[in-house]
Design goal:
about 775 residues; mainly beta; Maltoporin, Chain A; 26-stranded mixed β-sheet; 38 strands; globular; disordered N terminus
């Protein structure tokens, strides 16, 4: 497949080069149209983004910064350059299994959009970056809003928003080809072609990419194939764009992590996914028993993988009526299909209801199973903007419909024929309707003084039914699902900004954001449904106070925030009948802190940047539960809890300090960017247990590049990314829980170690 892909890419590149030679045009041709096209496309971006006069804490990532970080890693690596942002990764090298946290909030609370279309999974609320491979190469600009964020043409942000726009259509013919290779057989091949403006009205843009890597973590290989296609029609004040992007991802399952003892005995690259014991296995597994180091022989299932296909389609209309009025509308449809494939050792066959009872009775066997989903997401966003000298207005709305069946099948069961394992062992469906209306105003009431108001109404209908993948009992069978919930959210924001002497900008804002529970918050609660213990929605009150100084060579910023939560969903130690952790509503919790940023252009070729976040993240009057298997009661009479009254305690995964330093050197085609980030310790749970904690770490990356011109190419760029320059041994993420038996508490902690010093080289040719 890779060979075919490379052949197609080479053919496309050769054809494009020939076309350019035959159809050279004067540089100034269609210059007026070029300006108007870019102006229209800029309107598409600004309608859903904050501006310098908007009372919101935000960071913009320019196209140049995106390009220098597009060698092969996922977008979270790039987002970690902005204040209060942390990137995590399961494979250890920033490809596959990546995620971000902003101000300590998890990925389910970050609203991610591209061209105003929400990319978060409507079920889990998370953005799975590797499901849209090489999205970074298709993105033209990124804005990260911290806090509740402004209303967008999608769901409301709850703690933060990442707003991306695809790269602008080009008015001149061109393209580029890129090759990358580095540590752990990480590689990328990409080709991009743009037609330029044809016949004064049409333009086409296409990209093909392949990314592969063995990963730092054993069996954490990644195979990503992606495409992007844009077609545009331009006619004076109107632009119509069709955008399609997506691809196919195959990654090793690494989500279980490893304990510190397992890493000490078996190496930092070790994890247990797909491992099974065998008397003549080719691999060794070391463990401790009675204080002695023991050895077992094991083997691994080769196809322990996560597989996903996602295709995103958007049809965008932009029209400029006059200098005051503009209209934007986007219709979208996303198709997704994916499955986990897993080897399971010594499973109780009676828990798989697609196996006949007489066959499964009293038996255990090794098996290979698949968990499958197929989803459809479609909808429409529309907004209009009105702008005069002292007033900017925007209003509009959106609607989306999501449908997703989930089911499981068995590929193989040791000792059984295929005819004995047919059918589905669980099967459930989801329907979700999501609609909103918004209106936003930015009014200049006096010189330097602007008032801001933003109102959003959001309606959510969520239904799920069928049976889940948890076996309950012989009488019940698989866990039943029956969810039918509707929500009405009103999310207002108001603020004021004041500009003094052009360079000093002060702002103050208050916002309310609300969020419905995730799928797992509903479906993992079978035993508690009759007791009316389904979770309630979450509510956030967000205060932001900031100051920004901007001069030609120096910019300084400070932002104070206080995020007060009502009924925030957090893990409290409670589990369900299937031993899955449950999130519970806690009445009161908060995040408060200060964000500092600075940038100084010392010379024309050297810039120093820095940012730091100092925060407190707390739950008030918190009660933590530890499962006690010696008692009974709370869960269907099976077991009870040992409770610990903690008072005010730290929220999990919320470091007190995040700080970064960036040194940017560029001179006559040479670039060197030095970036280092420090993250203080983080607890896995709200229990503040030192046995379940990520140690503080400081990681430094170096990005080198040299760009030159040739007779046959517009530019050639040679780049080298050196990650973890000082070979720091650290873990970016982890998880854990505690349990008690016979008066002894046992803590279980699992970690995701990151690669030592590793490199990724790149050559990019633009023509």
């Amino acid at each position: 497949m890779k060979r075919i892909f490379l052949s197609l890419a080479a053919a496309a590149l050769c054809s494009a080069a020939q076309l350019r030679a035959e159809e050279k045009q004067p540089a100034n041709q269609n210059a007026g149209d070029s300006v108007r096209m870019y102006r229209l496309q800029e309107v598409e971006v600004t309608t859903t983004r904050a501006t310098p006069t908007t009372p919101v804490a935000y960071s913009d990532i320019r196209r140049e910064e995106i390009a220098r970080n597009s060698y092969g890693t996922d977008i979270p690596t790039l987002l970690a350059l902005t204040p209060s942002m942390i990137a995590t990764n399961e494979t250890g090298i920033g490809i596959g299994g990546t995620a971000v946290r902003l101000r300590g909030t998890d990925p389910t609370r970050l609203n991610v959009t591209i061209n105003g279309v929400a990319m978060n999974n409507p079920d889990s609320h998370s953005m799975y970056w590797y499901d849209t491979p090489d999205l970074v190469s298709a993105v033209g600009s990124i804005q990260v809003q911290r806090g509740a964020g402004i209303s967008t043409n999608g769901t409301g942000a709850f703690g933060g928003a990442v707003n991306m726009s695809t790269d602008a259509l080009q008015t001149e013919f061109g393209g580029d080809a890129s090759l990358s290779y580095g540590s752990y057989n990480t590689n990328k091949q990409a080709v991009h072609i743009s037609s330029g403006l044809m016949g004064g009205h049409w333009t086409l843009d296409a990209r093909l990419t392949h990314i592969g890597s063995e990963g730092y973590i054993d069996r954490g290989a990644t195979d990503l194939k992606s495409y992007m296609f844009q077609a545009g029609y331009y006619n004076g004040n109107t632009m119509l764009k069709l955008i399609s992007f997506g691809g196919k991802a195959k990654t090793g399952l690494t989500y279980t992590g490893a304990t510190k003892e397992e890493m000490r005995l078996n190496g930092r690259r070790f994890h247990t996914e797909g491992m099974y014991y065998t008397s003549n296995g080719p691999h060794s597994y070391y463990y401790m028993k009675d204080g002695e180091r023991q050895r077992a022989t094991v083997d691994y299932y080769d196809d322990q993988t996560d597989n996903y296909l996602q295709i995103n389609n958007q049809l965008m209309l932009s029209h400029r009526f006059n200098e005051k009025w503009t209209l934007n509308a986007t219709g979208f449809y996303t198709y997704g299909y994916g499955f986990y494939k897993q080897y399971k050792d010594a499973r109780t066959l009676s828990e798989y209801l697609n196996i006949p009872t007489d066959v499964a009775a009293g038996k255990e066997a090794d098996l290979v199973r698949e968990k499958i989903m197929r989803n459809h997401l479609g909808g429409l966003n529309a907004s209009a903007a009105y702008s005069v000298r002292k007033l900017d207005l925007a209003f509009g709305g959106s609607y989306s419909y999501y449908s997703c069946p989930h089911w499981g099948v068995l590929d193989w069961v040791d000792g059984l024929e295929g005819s004995q394992i047919g059918g589905r062992w669980y099967d459930n469906d989801v329907d979700k309707h999501d609609a909103n209306l918004f209106a936003r105003a930015n009014w200049s009431v006096a010189k330097g003084l602007r008032l801001f108001a933003d109102l959003q109404y959001r309606y959510v209908s969520y239904q799920a039914w069928g049976v889940n993948d948890n076996y309950v009992s012989e009488e019940v069978g698989m866990q039943p699902i029956d969810v039918d919930k509707q929500y009405h959210f009103f999310n207002p924001r108001a603020g004021v900004s004041y500009t003094l002497a052009e360079r000093n900008n002060f702002y103050l804002s208050f916002a309310v954001a609300q969020k419905e529970p995730t799928r797992s918050d509903f479906t993992d609660r079978y035993m508690f449904a009759e007791a009316n213990t389904y979770p309630s929605s979450e509510k956030l009150y967000d205060w932001e106070l900031g100051y920004q100084y901007t001069a030609p060579r120096l910019s300084l910023g400070v932002n104070l925030y206080y995020m007060k939560y009502k009924d925030q969903l957090v893990p409290t130690g409670r589990i369900n009948d299937g031993y899955d952790a449950l999130n519970d509503n806690v009445p009161d919790s908060y995040r408060r802190g200060v964000e500092l940023s600075a940038s100084w252009r010392a010379t024309g070729w050297f810039t120093v940047g820095a940012n730091a976040t100092f925060s407190q993240n707390r739950i008030e009057n918190y009660t933590h539960r530890v499962v006690d298997y010696d008692t009974s009661g709370d869960v269907a009479g099976y077991y009870g809890y040992h409770t610990v009254e903690m008072g005010t305690t730290r929220l999990s995964y919320s470091p007190k300090t995040i700080a970064a330093l960036l040194l940017d050197f560029h001179h006559k085609g040479f670039e060197a960017v030095f970036h280092t980030q420090y993250v203080s310790k983080q607890y896995f749970t709200n229990y503040e247990n030192p046995n379940m904690m990520l140690d503080a770490y400081c990681v430094t990356n170096l990005n080198l590049a040299y760009t030159f011109r040739t007779r046959s190419a517009r530019s050639v760029r040679l780049g080298l990314m050196v990650n973890n320059l000082f070979n720091t041994e650290y873990e970016s993420n982890g998880y854990g829980w505690s349990e008690a038996y016979e008066g002894t508490q046992t803590d279980h902690a699992f970690y995701f170690p990151q690669a030592p010093l590793n490199v990724l080289a790149n050559v990019t040719v633009k023509f």
